[in-house]
Amino acid sequence: MDQFFYFGILAFLFLLATFDLSIGVANDAVNFMSPAVGAKVAKFRTALIVAAVGIFVGATTSSGMMDIARHGIMQPQHYYLVDVMCVFLAVSATDVILMDIFNTLGLPTSTTVSMVFGLFGATTALALTKIIGDGMSYGDLINTDKALTVIISIFLSVAIAFVIGLIVMWISRVVFTFNYKKNLKWGIAVFGGASITSIFYFLLVSGLKNSKLLISINPEWTPAYMDEHKLVILGVCFVVFTVLVEILHLLKVNIFKLIVLFGTFALAMAFAGNDLVNFIGVPLAGLESVLMWSDAGYPDPSTFRMDALAVPSSQPFFVGAKPWFLVVAGVIMTIAIMTSKKARKVIENTNNLSRQDDGEEVFSSSKLARKTVRSVLTSTAFVSHYVPKKVTDWINSRFNTEEAILDEGMAFDLVRASVNLVLAGLLIVIGTSLQLPLSTTYVAFMVAMGTSLADRAWGRETAVYRITGVITVVGGWFITAGAAFILSLAIASLNYFGGIIAMVCVVAVIAFVLINNNRKFKQKQQESENVDTLFRQLVRCTDKQQCWGMLRQHVTNTQNEIITSVLGIYSQIVHGLVNEDVRRLREAQVRLEETRSLWKRYKRKEILGMRKISQLQAVEKNTWFHLSCNNVSQNLYGLNRMAEPIVEHVDNNFNPLEEAYVKQLMPLSEDVENYIRRVQGMIVSGDFTRFDEGIVEGNALKARISDMRHKLQHEIQHQDANIRVALLYLNTLQEVQELTSTLRHLLRSSKRFQE
Hints:
Helices cover 81% and strands 0% of the residues. By secondary structure, the chain is an all-alpha fold. It has 2 domains: 2-524, no CATH class; 537-754, Methane Monooxygenase Hydroxylase, Chain G, domain 1. Helix 1 packs parallel to helix 18. The N and C termini lie far apart (79 Å).
């Protein structure tokens, strides 16, 4: 029975590993794909093929070192088969769940941190049982040094990568400027030679150094040989590549594109070779454990010690089959990167945070971001006061963004893309030589953010949004560590004490999370595509007249969507009040908050769009555009003022509206809803032939509501009425009147804007 049970767990571990490979490569695609995609170095398909080839080569030539899963965190000599299988199942489950959540959100995170802290949490759960039961010490059971090293590396990689990215990009831009094609004659050979040398050396150290490929070519090319002769290798490579780059430049080859594509291949290869352990290390350790148990004749799993995991594997089948597992993993990763839509989402969000021009801002403003921008502006003003004006003017001339060579769809130029890849690879090489487990995700992302800041991509109009995005991503990294530890600890404890039933429940939860996240992702992606396509076209458009047509259509679409929400929310509030339906009222409040947030994003986009039309037209349309915006905002604020006292009244179970009030309100509300639809129809169709009738109808409604208010005020003063109910009804009428009034103004301003 035990055999079937543990082989079943093993099969599930490999199934999870398959999912993990697909999900993990989708998240980590940002490490090596963002520069090529952001700079439009080649077609997306071409960049994808280059990355896919790099991934496959990296996976199949990997050394297959799985020590971190076997004894990097746990001290296996103190654990039994039942213990390690509980740990491995918990770690695999945690890794899949966390990676899929981050992919669904479109945020990059570290597979290394997820696995290490998952192992740390799950092993802690089992260690606590032994500390309590056997009186063993925590230090004997767990290798805490590894987890501490990863934590330190997080801080180091984040700070160092950002600062170095900022400095190197600033120097590169001063040298080449945004009009870099004019300044290639003297600098491109040295820059290209140094860049390709760095990438090539990175490829050797992080991708091929510990593989069998180099040794198979030349037995003398061992890791020790590489370390001893690294200066010679660097020198020879620099001379050769510098000469080669100059020749290619004379032959009109775009050196920057060559650097980016070569760097994409190298980073993809190194990622697959080094991070493969994060995906298949745990199931392979589980396989080795079960095979050792099988060779021992299936003894009691609760007494069979895992001493063999503390030393290199000697199990014949495991040693012989491991290369085939690496090949299969390479195939899965290659297919995943070629087909994953979530990978594109993660890449897109990263490039949006570093794009050179104004575009769609994915993140909202935050208090910390606002304080940061304010502090930077104050510091910059202080420093500028002491810098000579000639120096300032010269530096500004080197950062003239008007000269930027950006084709349609490019988030940044080729110079920045090259610097991003070269620095990411170089920093990872340095980290590897210093035996620091730097995360490729952390390094690549923070280098990109540092270079974008140096490139003045974070202007005053966008800085708060992009800093919020960076804070969100970096915060997510630390959440990954904590969540992996806690979740893995909980699952391992559940597995250990709950047995088979608990493990089945874990499987069910994993399946539910994956299915639910993918459903939400597809829904969110569809909504995003439906909304943002027109704006993206507007941002990329260069023809002023076409920009005006797209802006007008976007404003119309926005007003149509907001008015539809206003109509639905208003109806929910009124019916919730009349029927004392607090659930409907709360739904209206939630929908109202979502609509307000959506409106803020739309407004921000359309303000950017106003910059794309001709100056003369902008002067003419600007007033009516902002009046329309103000009217839309007033509609939403009015609904909020209407909803809050009604929710409080109904939720506290106060007296309902009197029958006489209901008989007045319901016909009025029906007429107001019809008026909203009529205004919406004219705005959406652009047909204002019945504009005057719409204004007259609005005035009549306003006068009618005003008369009802005056009568109600008279009743409150001179009759014995329920003051609380009467005042609530009076507030409702006031806001309905205000809603009608702002709709009239919206109709007028929209007409003048569209004409």
